[in-house]
Structure formats: structure tokens, C-alpha cells
Amino acid sequence: MAEATPQTIYLKDYTPFGYQVDEVHLTFHLSPKATRVVSRIEFTPKPDAVDRSFFLHGEQLQLIAAKIDGQPVSPDVTAQGLTCDVPSTPFVWESEVEISPVTNTALEGLYMSNGMYCTQCEAEGFRKITFYPDRPDVMSTFTVRIEGDEKVLLSNGNPSGSGEGWAEWHDPWPKPAYLFALVAGDLINHPDRFTTKSGKDVELNIWVRPGDEDKCAFGMEALIKSMKWDEDVYGLEYDLDIFNIVAVDDFNMGAMENKGLNIFNSSCVLASPETSTDANFERIEAIIAHEYFHNWTGNRITCRDWFQLCLKEGLTVYRDSQFTSDMRSASVKRISDVIDLRGRQFAEDNGPLAHQVRPESFQEINNFYTATIYEKGAEVIGMLKRLVGDEAYTKAVALYFERHDGQACTIEDWLQVFEDSTGRDLSQFSKWYSQAGTPRIKVTDDYLDGTYTLTLEQSTPATPGQPDKDPRVIPVAVGLLGQNGDEVRGTEVLELTEAKQSFSFDGLASKPVPSILREFSAPVIMERESTNAERAFLLAHDSDSFNRWEAGNTLAKEARVAMVLDAAAPDADYLDALTKLVRDDSLDPAFRALVLSPPSQSDLAQTLFERGHTPDPQAIYDAAETFAQTLAEALTDSLPRLYADTTVQGAYSPDAESAGKRDLNARMLSLLTRLDGGEAAARQYDAADNMTQQNAALACLLKAENGETQSQAFYDQWQGDRLVMDKWFGLQVACSAPKKAASAAANLTEHALFDLKNPNRFRAVMGALAMNQAGFHYEGGAGYQLLADNLIALDALNPQTTARMCSAFQTWKRYDSTRQELIRAQLERISATNNLSRDTNEMVSRILN
Ligand code: 0A1
Ligand code: ZN
């Protein structure tokens, strides 16, 4: 039971704050248990204010003193903040509060991680630092003085003075409090410089704990590339004299875009060939870019209120995916993004947690940092760009920066710049923001006398609180192929605006094969009767690489569905196509690796569920195993050669091409392990000089239940490296057979290095359990119980990470009644916990309803 009746906040209730904040001065006297924060804030009443009440947020603060214009005052203080009588003319508010960073395990506000002070203020953490109108539409300049014994004292903006035991920072750009940051610690920097296109010299630093300084070079390169890319592609220049990044070990999310002082989860910035995999390198590059890009999309132009979160997040994810496409392979990036979207966002959109890209109510905003806001938010930007065209997109975005720089904006402002610069009416398009749920597009076709007609019918299933949906405008990119595989019509974007609509193509000599939803032009589920022969044809011939992959993916899915439902043997034609494709050296290795990667077991469960079956996680797992075994056997003769040919020789480099080859190589090794029991994997383990190959070999060996020696060796080698040990913890669970996954995870929670307070370690174990579908859902429900036990234990320490992990239960209604009852019992047990946080309470009640 949550402490008090949770309050729901509505978008429709938005009212501006009645006061302008002109300047903020903060002084921090650092001390682990008793940090004093002195604030001096200049307020001016707004002449046109609707609401003049003076309420300052404040939580877990001990108020020492408060003054207005130098005179002591006695405000009314509650658990949420304070109210006070204030003058109707400009006045200065001063307060002194005491806080305890060292006992702050929620990792929100000012806390300590491994002896260093750091902050996390998005979304509403600043109120745990001092009393303040903690809302994104209140923007002000900040001057910060830090007093402490630490060697390095950092805050936002530019340094404005320092001496023995103190430093001062001034941020000239008005910002909301959620972008405030402070770091203090005995840190070491990896320095560099960047000259902006107008010639401004910027000092760059990545700050880390001593010992990590050799893991900063890649992150720094990524930062410099991001700064250059934003100038080249969006014309956006950096605007301070210094840009600092700090790595911290205890962090709830990936990273945070605080103005001029980005704070990163160390897993998202520290990289070295020996300790990081290719996937880590790619993710680090993308996250550094993402946080940097926020400087304009998020910081210079921020959100009016938290309902508008997608305004900064959707756009910034879209920008970072453009960046990755430019730095690496655009088609590989698109395929990976769609796999991720389907795995996380579609699961959310089709379950009890479904919500709009712009929600209209919430209890705890931290629960809305979701795949829907981020990834679907980015898809919406991509659709908009496709509908208006590249040039119009560039023009509209330029207008957005010109018109709204320095403001706190809404989705309406964003759409308005597109309407104004293109003359297009976007009222129907705006439904992408206001309607939750994944649209289904049913496709039928017809060919008569040289004319090919596609009929598209759209519908969106009901979602919580939204039973009925209107048709949206959906860009459907289509190309047509002739019978010989040549393209007879290049890509054209069909604008589906009606519930049902037909589109005709004339002058065709014979019935074409359609390639629909090229590049995955809209986040929808396409339903179309097709044959395996047609899919194989598209896999072989489509000029759109996304749809080539998609054809293979559908074949893979259908083959497994048939295995699960009809105990069919693995589809022979598909196996044949796959074995050809693996050997086809003319294809990009990264693409081949993607075609070889099996559809996720969760995705298969959802597909079966949508077709009216109750998915059995064990049967889905068995089908995947049988399929992989059959494929390995079909490749018996060529596997050793394929494995050898794809092995990357020479010094490790994290570039996309080498990474693609290593990915394909790892898939060969995993097939080969099915035939040789782990001989090749053991050799690779011993020879590996980089984490990508070491990790891949260990995964194969653990999966084959033949990796005890290597697992121990890995442990001995890396027990002093927190990030590498996260991999070790995760692999033990991820590679466990279904029957053993829950007990493996349970044992790990007893391990001396398991640390409930470190979100990375908690996620390594519990996240891996939730991802091991057949293990998590293994009969008897031990996985459910273990997760619930740990969520209950963590909630008392860190509500935010607990609440996020609750989403492991979001798909529960797909399963049989026995599993549903087992999950329900755990959800109810969590819900009945004394003093459950608002975060977890909201998540559990949404999942249960
Ligand atoms: N804005 C950051 C992510 C972030 C969001 C919330 C946090 O605490 C609730 C922390 C970080 C980003 O998009 O990178
Ligand atoms: Zn972001």
C-alpha cells in the first residue's frame, strides 16, 4: 500500500507559475551527512498571472532559515514543499537547508556514488536539493558556489572563479532546474578541445575516477564527432566555453544532459577494447551524441511541462539515430531500431501500460521515460519528415530554433512550425501524439489489365482509457518488383488517411510483387496474406534492405510458429535460403548477422497471442533450439570454414565494419558450438584479446553448459572491474536453460558482489532474468517470485529503478491462466507492501488493471 492516496496530475490543468525567476544563486557547503544549501533567488510577480500562489517544491529538506528581502519569514512547510506570503513587487527569497547525500539511495537530487558527490535532477530531483519552483517552464540563469575538500568541483556553465576548497560556476543560459548539476570528487580528466564553426574554442573533459582514465578516448572521439555533426547537419553550434562529461557508477538511467555538465552512467561512457563489446562501443557513441544533441533539443528549447517530454526526447532520439546512420550503416541501424521498437515499444503499446506519445495524466513522471515517449516519439518525427520531405523538414526545424530558442514549448509549437513553413494541415497527424496503441494495416491487392491496386485498411485496438480510435495519416512507402526481381516502380510514399483506401499503379506488364512499408516507414503492424515463396523472393531481390531483412524475419517467424503450433519440422525452403545467405560473401556481414538473428521469443509470444493462441514459453524456446540445431547441422560442412573466414584478424578496432564481421562470427561460433560442444569457443576464449570475442565465447560455453572453467577464469580476471562484472552476472542468467534461470539468478543475489544499491548490478541479474523468457516464465513461477522479492527489497531504497523493472510483468495477460494467477499473486504482493513508493504503486496498479 502506498503511503497516501496518490495524486493524478492532468495536462488540462496546466497553469503557468505566477512569478518570473530572474536569477538563482546557490552555495553548497558539502558534507556527506549534512550538506548545507544556501539559495538566493530573485522573483518578479508576473503582471498577467492567473495564479499568484507562492508555492516552492521541496522534499526531504530540513529548513534551517528563510528570508524575504533580508527579513526572516516562517513559511508553511509540508512534505511536498512550502507556501509563504510574499510581496506583490520583485523580491529576493533566501533559504538555507540541510540534506544528507550519503543516505540518498534513490539516486535523485544530490547523492554520493563511490565517494563522489553527484546530482540527478530530471525530472523532479531539484526539489530534493532546495526549495524551488521545480517545473520545466521556470527558466533562470544560475550562479553556483561549491565549497568542499574534493579536488574537482563542477557545475553547469562556465567556471567563474576558484580557490583552495571552493569553485564558482556561472551558466548564462536560462534553464529549468531539472538541468542543474553538481559534481565533486577526486576525479581525473581526459581533456581535448573543439573549435566551433564560428571559431569559438571549447574545452572538453571527460571526468572519471582514478583507474578509468584509459577508458575515455573513445567517448571523447564520439563527443567531437557529435559536435561536428550537429553543426554540419543541423547548423547548431555549442554555446559555452567548456563541456564536461562525468562518469558515475550508480545511476538510474543511461545519462543526463545537464547544461554543460553531462552526467553518465559509467557503463555508457567508459570504453576499452579489453573491457567493452562492440555493442557497448556503438551504444556509447549513440548516448554521447544523444546527450550532446539535447543541448539544443531539450536545453535551449525545453518542455513547457512533463507531458511534453517527447518534444525533447523523441526529437533527440531521432537526431541520434540520424547520427548513427551517418557514422555507421544506415540500413543496419534501421533494422536494429525496428527490432528494438518491436521488442520494447510494441510490447508496451499492446499491453496495460500503453500510453500516448504525449500522455494526458500521470502520477509519477519518472514512470513515463518509456519506449513510447522515446522510440515511438522518434518514429513520429521520422514520419513527419517523410510526409513533408527532407527540405521542408530542414526549413521547419530551422524555424523551430529561430522562433523558440530560450523557451519552454509544447507539441503544438513543434507542429505549428511545420504547418507555417509547409502550409500543410497537421491536425490529423497530431493524432500520433494523442492516440495510444499500434495501428494495424490490413493489406489486400488486385491486378487487372495492367493496373495493380493496393487496398490498405487501418485500425487501432483499444488501449487503457481509449476505447475508440480515429484513422491517422500513415506514410506507407511502397515499391514494386517484377517477376524477375527487377524493380518496376521505385519507392513511393502512399499517404493513408482514411480507414480504408485504395492506391493504383498503371502500366504494369504483369502482376508485380509489392514491397510494402519500406524502411519501416511507420510504426504499425502490417497484416497481409503472403506465401513463403513470395517472402523468399523479396529476401533475394528487394532493393530496400530493410524489407529484405523483414522478409527473412517473417519467414523465420512463420517457421517457428508452425513448429510451435503444428509440431512441424523447420521449414526446408527457409533453411535453404538461410544457408545460401550465410555463405553469400557479397552481402554485408552485419546484414547477414541480422538475418541470422532469430526473432525474439517475446515477439513470437506476442504474435501467437494476436493470432488467438496462448503462447507457451517453453514450446517457443524448444522451437528456437530445434531450429538452431537443424541449421547448424545443415551447415556442418561449411561451419568451420565460415567461422574461420569471418574471424577478424589484427588489432581490435570498434569500427562498424569490423563489428559487423565479429557479429556474424559470433553467430557462426554459436552454431558451431552446437556441433563441437564448445571446442572452438574454448579456443576463442583463450585467444581473445578483446571483450567482444571473450564475451561471445563465454556465452556459447555457458549455453552449452560447458563453461565452468572459463567462467571462473573470467571472474578471476575481472572481479575488480564493476562494468565487466555486470556482464559476468548477466551472462550466468541469460545463458541458463529455462529450468535453471531462476535459481541461477537467486544464487547470484547471494553473491558477495551483488549490490542492490547499484542499478547496473541489479539490472544485470534481474533484467537478464526477465529477458530469459522461458526461464522467467518457467512453470511453477519461481522466476516471478524472485523478481517480486527483489523489487520489494529495492523499492525501499530506489523507487525509480524498481518501478521500471516492474514492466517485466506487463505482458502477463498473454499467458495461460495458471501463469496469470502466479503473476497476479506477485503483483498483489508487491502492491500490498507497506510504504510502497508512488513510482512502484502506479506501475503495479496500471499493470494489474
Ligand atoms: N533525459 C535523459 C534521461 C534521463 C531521464 C530521467 C532521469 O531520471 C528520472 C535520468 C536521465 C536522456 O534522455 O538521456
Ligand atoms: Zn534524452
From TrEMBL:
<keyword id="KW-0479">Metal-binding</keyword>
<dbReference type="Pfam" id="PF17432">
    <property type="entry name" value="DUF3458_C"/>
</dbReference>
<dbReference type="InterPro" id="IPR035414">
    <property type="entry name" value="Peptidase_M1_pepN_Ig-like"/>
</dbReference>
<feature type="domain" description="Peptidase M1 alanyl aminopeptidase Ig-like fold">
    <location>
        <begin position="437"/>
        <end position="528"/>
    </location>
</feature>
<keyword id="KW-0482">Metalloprotease</keyword>
<feature type="domain" description="Peptidase M1 membrane alanine aminopeptidase">
    <location>
        <begin position="218"/>
        <end position="431"/>
    </location>
</feature>
<dbReference type="InterPro" id="IPR024601">
    <property type="entry name" value="Peptidase_M1_pepN_C"/>
</dbReference>
<feature type="domain" description="Peptidase M1 alanyl aminopeptidase C-terminal">
    <location>
        <begin position="533"/>
        <end position="849"/>
    </location>
</feature>
<feature type="domain" description="Aminopeptidase N-like N-terminal">
    <location>
        <begin position="26"/>
        <end position="179"/>
    </location>
</feature>
<dbReference type="InterPro" id="IPR042097">
    <property type="entry name" value="Aminopeptidase_N-like_N_sf"/>
</dbReference>
<comment type="similarity">
    <text>Belongs to the peptidase M1 family.</text>
</comment>
<keyword id="KW-0031">Aminopeptidase</keyword>
<dbReference type="InterPro" id="IPR027268">
    <property type="entry name" value="Peptidase_M4/M1_CTD_sf"/>
</dbReference>
<dbReference type="InterPro" id="IPR038438">
    <property type="entry name" value="PepN_Ig-like_sf"/>
</dbReference>
<dbReference type="InterPro" id="IPR037144">
    <property type="entry name" value="Peptidase_M1_pepN_C_sf"/>
</dbReference>
<dbReference type="InterPro" id="IPR045357">
    <property type="entry name" value="Aminopeptidase_N-like_N"/>
</dbReference>
<dbReference type="Pfam" id="PF01433">
    <property type="entry name" value="Peptidase_M1"/>
</dbReference>
<keyword id="KW-0645">Protease</keyword>
<dbReference type="Pfam" id="PF11940">
    <property type="entry name" value="DUF3458"/>
</dbReference>
<dbReference type="GO" id="GO:0004177">
    <property type="term" value="F:aminopeptidase activity"/>
</dbReference>
<keyword id="KW-0862">Zinc</keyword>
<dbReference type="InterPro" id="IPR001930">
    <property type="entry name" value="Peptidase_M1"/>
</dbReference>
<keyword id="KW-0378">Hydrolase</keyword>
<dbReference type="Pfam" id="PF17900">
    <property type="entry name" value="Peptidase_M1_N"/>
</dbReference>
<dbReference type="InterPro" id="IPR012779">
    <property type="entry name" value="Peptidase_M1_pepN"/>
</dbReference>
<dbReference type="InterPro" id="IPR014782">
    <property type="entry name" value="Peptidase_M1_dom"/>
</dbReference>
<protein>
    <recommendedName>
        <fullName>Aminopeptidase N</fullName>
        <ecNumber>3.4.11.2</ecNumber>
    </recommendedName>
</protein>
